[in-house]
Amino acid sequence: MAAIDVSNAAQRETAPAPAGRRKKGGGVWWRHALALLALVFALFPILFIVSSAFNNAGTLSTSGLMPTKFGTDNFKDLFADPARPYWTWFKNSMIISVVSTIATLFLGACAAYAFSRLRWTGRRGGLLAILLLQMFPAVLAFGALYITFANVGNILPAVGLNTLAGLILVYLGGAMGSNIWLLKGYFDTVPKELDEAAYIDGASHARIFFTITLRLVTPILATVAMLAFVGLWGEFLLASIFLTDVNQQTLAVGLWQTRNADVNRYFGQFVAGAVIASIPVVLVYLSLQKQLIGGLTQGSVK
Amino acid sequence: MSQQATHKGDAEVGHLAEPEHLEYGTRPPIWVTVVKWVLIALALAVLLYVVQELIEAGHWLMVILAAFVAMCILAVYSTRRAVPLKYLLPGLLFALALQIWPLVYTVSLSFTNYGDGHLISKEEAISAIEASSVRPVEGSARFSLNIAVPEGQDVATGDLIYLLTDPDGNFFAGSLQGLQPLDAETVEAGMTGRITSADGFTVLSASEVNARSADLAEFAVPTETGGIKQIGLSEAFIGEPTKVWDEASGTITDTLTGRVYVAEGANFVPQDGVGPPLPQGWLENVGFDNYTEALTNPTLRAGFIKVLVWNFAFAAITVISTFLLGMLLALLFNDSRLKGRGVYRSLLILPYALPIYVTALVWSSMFNQDFGLINSVTGLDINWLGDPWMARLALLITNLWLGFPYMFIVCTGALQSIPGEVREAAAIDGAGPFRTVRSVIMPLLLVAVGPLLIASFAFNFNNFGLVFLFNEGGPFIGGQSQIGSTDLLISWAYRLALGGTQPNFGLASAIAVFIFFIVALISYQGFRSTKALEDVN
């Protein structure tokens, strides 16, 4: 549904503006002027980030909107710092985000299929229960999660505190709930006659799901995957509780500690790391803007 | 999309003509069946491993639960019945274990005193107090000692273990639960008999032992007559306790000072009321104490109300300011004559695209009084992060920057769905551009984005990431380090549970439950103002 809305919106945009009185008014230069003002507000911190990253002096006090000494020393320092294994953090963030995204997508799609396509008692109640549950993300129960996983770790060290697997499990707790409405809404738009035809042909429900439905809903899967990935890439609260060992940490926790080690001195390293950490999500945003915008406007409360 | 769908449909319908498909259901290909059973077997194998570990640790309730899950998987996936469950079970299991259980557990924790010094039962607390009070007696046995944690646990936080060698050369592992003999086969010992490594344990290095000296000072292994306690780094003695538990009177007596301690408030406190309680307390239910404490203890109550008011103000001001700016920009760009709108839009989204840990920390750095960009560019010398009101203002500015792109996107979408005739009608009625926006466009816009505003309020109400990363809830005024000026309920709860030296999970959970109620209220309002619930079919 999201994608359809966006394409409609795009069409409307290109349509000629309704003949209003404003056409008489002088030009659009003031709109450009205000737009530029908004751009300055939106972009000056980003300019600050990039120029500080390429500023060889490397401290906060020497950072400004233009690098005083252009160079890549901050990046070299960051990659060479034995106390801050940047690429390990990057790898950890990647593993957590990619694995959780894929699993979230699969669990969500399965549940959406059951809610959209199959008829069973308790379906409506289940849907409402999920909607309700979604309002209370596990993040709010961080204390209980911490204690639970401390105990789990004593029995199953592989998924205890301070492991990527444990954190991924926690993220999957909300997999079915989050985005179920977005997914179900889109599943509902795929004509049911397709399933019925395949069913009459003798296809099993699993075959219909994997070979027909999943292929027809790829646009919404892309949207949900991006929303999930971006959310996971930036998650801080649970990651900071779970990952205490420096080699297990994600970019969020690692960069936070880098910057807090000394607000002034390590600023160059921090900001260099921040630039690289931003690249994956910015790329995702810019390349798939349309789907994301559709997802955002539809996302939370349908 | 629908075009493609119809084609596919035609193709499928085409199959209908072939009669043999109607006669017999097609069997799934063999590899599908194989993959299915491999997956089932894999899931069962994992569960079997879990059950085995649980049995070893003696968690029988969990064993039953794991076995039940295994049966569910088998029942759902090996038969042809319960088709909906085949799709729901995995998500359901995750949701039950990792979303519902933590919420329920949070509620139950809020009725306990779970926290620093209150982690074990009363019996365990008594034996720990007795054991740690041991003094060597004449001719008591000496052990060679090494210090370890169980394998797999973190050396900085794991349960401490004494690896002991008695004078006869027998090996033991001593924990809070008591002494366990170790098989000589599984142990490597040095010349003096001191254990250097043992299967199932991670031996701590000297610096790691040093890092845990505070824990070690409290640690002792209870025995029948008293306890075993370390003396120096490589030796331990068995001795008699100087603090003795008297079951009949329910008191602990210190035989050295003659002082009597009574149980009160999950701690042993001196009977005469003078002096500190014994450090080791126990875990117990405290009923509504955490709640009443937050509402009646003067310092806590003042802090609680302060945090609550700021929490609502922060969320409300954020929603209003981001919405206004986003809407104005959307109106600005809602003119097809404006060239390059696509470029403007892509650039305006950037603040929203960056990860929160980047933006929050960079803004915090920009607001730094001595080195920050804001002061140096404007020539001001404002203590942005140290002054309570300035910190709040700085936080709101930061969140405005973070949030307006989202509102801009949302409003742009909503504006395009407002028909042009409405504007025309307003113009014919003689409304100026300002009046049109205020009386016609805004109300229509609010109807469209209202639910999203409520969702945004709910999100910002618990915007831990921004508040914590920006200034860790600070500044802290008045010499206390518990409640900061920009703290939200959730960041306050975080500090109570995990931030300080004396974690208090009970109180933190009570605050979390309070957040649940507020979120529920907000959601209820949100539902009432949308038709989402009626659409369920």
What does this structure look like?
The complex is a heterodimer of chains A (302) and B (537). Chain A is mainly alpha-helical and 302 residues long. Chain A is 70% helix and 0% strand. Chain A folds into 2 domains: 19-72, no CATH class; 79-300, MetI-like (MetI-like fold, Orthogonal Bundle), CATH 1.10.3720. The longest helix of chain B has 36 residues, at 298-333. Chain B is of the alpha+beta class. Chain B has 4 domains: 13-109, Up-down Bundle (Methane Monooxygenase Hydroxylase, Chain G, domain 1); 119-133 and 244-286; 135-241, no CATH class; 294-534, Orthogonal Bundle (MetI-like fold). The interface between A and B is large, with 136 and 137 residues.
Sum up the structure in keywords.
heterodimer, A: 302 residues, mainly alpha, MetI-like fold, 2 domains, 15 helices, 70% helix, disordered N terminus, B: 537 residues, alpha+beta, Methane Monooxygenase Hydroxylase, Chain G, domain 1, 4 domains, nine-stranded antiparallel sheet, four-stranded antiparallel sheet, 19 helices, 15 strands, globular
| Protein structure class of chain B | alpha+beta
- The rounded Rg of chain A comes to 24 Å
User: Main β-sheet of chain A, in a few words?
Assistant: none
Greatest chain-chain interface? A-B, 136 and 137 residues
Number of strands of chain B: 15
Under the CATH scheme, which class of the largest domain in chain A?
Answer: Mainly Alpha
Portion in helices of chain B = 55-70%
CATH topology title of the largest domain in chain A: MetI-like fold
State the order of secondary-structure elements of chain A, H for helix, E for strand.
HHHHHHHHHHHHHHH
Query: In the residues of chain A, how many domains can be counted?
Result: 2
Q: What percentage of amino acids of chain A are in beta strands?
A: under 5%
Helix content of chain A: 55-70%
Query: How many strands, which pairing sense, and closed or not: the largest β-sheet of chain B?
Result: 9 strands, antiparallel
How much is the average pLDDT of chain B?
82
Q: Return Rg of chain B in Å.
A: 33 Å
Query: What are the segments of chain A in which pLDDT stays under 50 over at least 5 consecutive residues?
Result: 1-25
Question: What's the end-to-end separation of chain B, in Å?
Answer: 23 Å
Q: What's the number of structural domains of chain B?
A: 4
> What would the average pLDDT of chain A be, to the nearest integer?
82
- Would you report the number of β strands of chain A? 0
